[in-house]
């Protein structure tokens, strides 16, 4: 690729300025655009997709399907929970699960689970069970 860029780049449209339509031609090989790998990014965090396993409360089903869609496999665990399995880049999934903290638990991979535990323990709000 020209302009010193290799591979696919991601840009936030909401931050773009001074955009212009030009007559400049750009040829992108179809093989260079792998939409399947793009779909596995969460919050535009890149990284090698890994098999991820989440334990979820049933009420989280809509959010899980909205975010992970077609690549998602869902298994009933009990009357209140299901297991979700999919491939995605781990870093973005960790951040995504933080918004569902009371409904979603990272089961695998272990390094992701440990990173989520570190985030929770960092407790920037200083909240404890006694402070409630």
Alpha carbon gyration radius: 19 Å
| Largest sheet features | 4 strands, antiparallel
The number of helical elements comes to 4
Q: Any low-confidence stretches, pLDDT <50, length ≥5?
A: none
Q: Per CATH, which architecture of the domain at 35-124?
A: 2-Layer Sandwich
Name of the CATH class of the domain at 35-124: Alpha Beta
Mean pLDDT: 82
The geometry reads as extended
Distance between the termini: 56 Å
Main sheet strand line-up = 2-3-1-4
In helices, the fraction of residues equals 25-40%
Write structural notes for this entry.
Helix content is 27%, strand content 19%. It is an alpha+beta fold and 132 residues long. A four-stranded antiparallel β-sheet has the order 2-3-1-4. A hairpin with a 4-residue loop joins strand 2 and strand 3. The protein is extended. The mean pLDDT is 82.
């Amino acid at each position: 690729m020209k302009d010193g860029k290799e591979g696919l780049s991601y840009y936030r449209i909401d931050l773009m300025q001074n955009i212009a339509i030009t007559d400049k031609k750009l040829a992108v090989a179809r093989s260079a655009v792998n939409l399947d790998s793009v779909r596995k990014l969460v919050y535009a965090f890149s990284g090698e997709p890994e098999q991820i396993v989440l334990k979820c409360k049933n009420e989280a089903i809509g959010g899980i399907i909205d975010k992970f869609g077609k690549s998602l496999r869902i298994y009933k665990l009990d009357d209140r929970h299901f297991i979700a399995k999919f491939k995605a880049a781990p870093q973005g999934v960790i951040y995504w699960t933080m918004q569902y903290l009371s409904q979603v638990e990272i089961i695998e991979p272990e390094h992701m689970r440990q990173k989520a535990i570190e985030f929770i323990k960092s407790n920037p709000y200083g909240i404890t069970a006694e402070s409630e």
